[in-house]
Specification:
Radius of gyration of chain B: 13 Å
Number of strands of chain A: 11
Order of helices and strands of chain B: EEEEEEEEE
Number of strands of chain B: 9
Shape of chain B: globular
Mean pLDDT of chain B: 96
Strand content of chain A: over 45%
Helix content of chain A: under 10%
Number of helices of chain A: 0
Number of helices of chain B: 0
Oligomer: heterodimer
Distance between the termini of chain B: 35 Å
Order of helices and strands of chain A: EEEEEEEEEEE
Distance between the termini of chain A: 39 Å
Low-confidence stretches of chain B: none
Mean pLDDT of chain A: 96
Structural class of chain A: mainly beta
Chain lengths: 118, 110
């Protein structure tokens, strides 16, 4: 059974870089799109971006200048870096798997809360 | 890339049907047949309940059904049950290989 697990610091200082890792187990990383999605407390979902097993990436235009998603298939992991964070980046961050073109997010991690505060 | 528009809340009594709308534009919902719906209980990860507008994943109750007309997709929950009380989000594939979510709808079972 496919499982995803987010990990990383729960507290990040303003202007710093938020870094999270998603570890995938129970299946191959190919040929899928690996996504990051976030949810501010009490608010809705926002797609951040994804990476394909080839390494190609797609990002939300509103976050593109600050986001980098990378992949390490040898460790069955993919990662999110979000730079220059502010309090508005405080959210529950989920990783999720999608299939091919236009595919839905079928598998999700449980989410990890990241708070931006000094 | 603006969020898809959903009603903030809908409610119904057990056994009734409720419908949630999801309005986008001719750049997302109106162009792609890749609308999906997710159910999220408090403190939990979202769960896929409808994909490609009308299809149900294995194991999802047939009380959930989806449809689409032009720029608006809809999710109908038939035979409302207490366990259906949750937040529901639509999502659509969008230009330049991106995704956009809806604003979310809280379903209350009276």
């Amino acid at each position: 059974q496919m499982q995803l697990q987010e990990s990383g610091p729960g507290l990040v200082k303003p202007s710093a870089t938020l870094s999270l890792t998603c570890t995938v187990s129970g299946g191959s990383m190919s040929p899928y799109y690996w996504n990051w999605i976030r949810q501010p407390p009490g608010k809705g979902l926002e797609w951040i971006g994804n990476i394909y097993d080839s390494g190609s990436t797609n990002y939300n235009p509103s976050l593109k200048s600050r986001v980098t998603i990378s992949l390490d298939t040898s460790k069955n992991q993919f990662s999110l870096n979000l730079s220059s964070v502010t309090a508005a980046d405080t959210a529950l961050y989920f990783c999720a798997r999608a299939g091919g073109y236009g595919s839905p997010f079928r598998y999700w991690g449980q989410g990890t809360l990241v708070t931006v505060s000094s | 890339q603006s969020a898809l528009t959903q009603p903030a809340s809908v409610s119904g009594s057990p056994g009734q049907s409720v419908t949630i709308s999801c309005t986008g534009t001719n750049s997302d919902v109106g162009t792609y047949n890749f609308v999906s719906w997710y159910q999220q209980h408090p403190g939990k990860a979202p769960k896929l309940i409808i994909y490609e507008g009308t299809k149900r994943p294995s194991g999802v109750s047939n009380r959930f059904s989806g449809s689409k007309s032009e720029n608006t997709a809809s999710l109908t929950i038939s035979g409302l049950q207490a366990e259906d009380e949750a937040a529901y989000y639509c999502s659509s594939y969008a230009p330049i290989s991106t995704y956009v979510f809806g604003t979310g709808t809280k379903v209350t079972v009276l």
